[in-house]
Amino acid sequence: MTEMKRRSPLERFLGKPLPWVVWTWAALAAVWIVLAIVDPSGFRTFMAITWSILAAVQLGGAYYARRQQRRRVQPSDARTAAH
Description:
The chain is an all-alpha fold and about 80 residues long. The protein is built from four helices and no strands. It has a domain at about 15-65. It has helices at about 5, 10-15, 20-40, 40-80. Helix 3 runs antiparallel to helix 4.
């Protein structure tokens, strides 16, 4: 089966999330949260919420992609071990 057929629609649309990109988004969200706490303003609060949501989506996407990859690998390993 080709790689394109095995990829989920989410992976086709967003691509495969790289761990360093995910953690960079999470770090940026943390920075905005700290800025919103230290010097509150409407803009900083908005940015903190926005970056937190985007980081959560990235983390969820990375977790989902990793779980799908493990599911794809396990059945093929079971077939080769049985033969």
